[in-house]
Design a protein that fits this description.
This protein is α/β, with parallel strands linked by helices. Helices cover about 40% and strands about 20% of the residues. The protein has twelve helices and 15 strands. The strands form three sheets. The protein has an eight-stranded parallel beta sheet with strand order 8-7-6-5-4-3-10-9. The chain is elongated and about 75 Å long.
């Protein structure tokens, strides 16, 4: 879905498994398993849960040979493209490629001698496997930290450019880049800088964002700000805990910047002294009853029958409460007036007419 308010930054385009990457494709949602990759059953179970919730690409940690061997079964049964997360050991990258992974996350500058990097790049090139360069504020090279006096946006960009140049010198261009920091303004600055310097797709994220509430807000501000500027091609919301919760937040971010329109969006007013109904309970019930609908709809739940329909005139459907009665409206036009006790069912009935499905 295109957003008519801004234009996506133009990038190189390629595929990672079945998922297109780059400005010609929708911004995709990624996550990472929290299971021990060597436990194939547990890892596949979590991958399936992520896929069912809307995740489109999954990354798994590959700390040793046993984990690399497990990739064969994982990739064969995974409903999602699998990215192997590799640090330092080029042999693990080669094993991951041999076992069918769809992508690698590694920094070539950390692999060691040039011949090791060349081996990995050759194998990735033969199978058209993209490599994500992942620069993190917590693991910058010592020389770059000393040069810039600490973690700065310029330091993150310089580190990424160094790794990119290694791959480019070997003729490899299936590159995706991330510049993550737990500091939102720093992360935004770094991505804005590199967006004007390289033609490669960017993977957005606020690393170590924290627990659900704070982490969701930090991710929404950081990722959402960049997407609203047309920057970003894949995203991951990094939250402590169950990764399935990351997917809901990621989908909400894409909805908020109008890059996706799938399912029901419930909007509701913050209420004021004119509100005479339990608006919170009503909105929560509407959200619950429409959670499984895939039809793109905007539903408004307003507390004031005087101003509600006008304030939410762009909503597909809505209800507005009054004293003892309320209105059902569509695109700002009143459809019917019903007793307050029938507001919810009247709205659900109108939704059913549009979706041809009971809710």
């Amino acid at each position: 879905m295109a957003n008519h308010y801004f234009e996506r930054r133009k990038t190189k385009n390629f595929t990672l498994g079945s998922v297109g990457i780059g400005h010609e494709h929708p911004v995709s949602i990624q996550s990472m398993t929290t299971t021990d990759t060597r436990n194939t059953a547990a890892t596949l179970k979590q991958i399936r849960e992520l896929g069912a919730s809307g995740c489109e690409i999954v990354r798994v940690a590959v700390p040793d040979c046993e984990a690399a061997y497990a990739l064969s079964a994982i990739v064969q049964e995974s409903p999602l493209p699998v990215v192997a997360d590799i640090h330092f050991d080029y042999r693990l990258a080669l094993m991951a490629i041999d076992n069918g992974v769809h992508g690698l996350r590694l920094n070539p500058g950390n692999i060691g001698e040039e011949w090791k990097v060349r081996e990995v790049v050759r194998a990735a090139q033969e199978k058209s496997i993209p490599i994500r360069i992942g620069v993190n504020g917590g693991s910058l090279e010592k020389k770059i930290l000393e040069k810039h006096g600490g973690v700065t946006a310029q330091a993150l960009v310089e580190s990424a450019r160094r790794h990119v140049s290694i791959l480019e010198d070997l003729g490899f261009e299936l590159i995706k880049i991330s510049l993550k920091s737990s500091r939102v303004p720093l992360m935004i600055d770094a991505y804005r800088q590199i967006a004007g310097q390289v033609p490669y797709p960017l993977h957005l994220g606020v690393t170590e964002a924290g627990l659900y509430e704070v982490g969701s807000i930090k991710s929404a501000v950081g990722i959402g700000s960049l997407l609203a500027l047309g920057i970003g091609d894949t995203i991951r919301v990094s939250l402590t805990g169950d990764p399935v919760r990351e997917i809901k937040v990621a989908k909400l971010i894409l909805h908020a910047v109008e890059l996706r329109k799938e399912g029901v969006e419930v909007i509701s007013c913050p209420t004021c002294g004119r509100c005479q109904i339990d608006l919170y309970a009503l909105a929560a019930e509407v959200e619950k009853r429409t959670a499984d609908l895939k039809v793109p709809l905007t539903i408004a739940v307003m507390g004031c029958a005087v101003n509600g329909p006008g304030e939410a005139r762009e909503a597909d459907l809505g209800i507005a409460g009054g004293k003892g009665e309320g209105l059902v409206f569509a695109k700002g036009k009143i459809v019917k007036k019903v007793p307050e006790s029938q507001l919810l069912e009247a709205l659900l009935d109108e939704i059913g007419k549009i979706t041809k499905k009971g809710v």
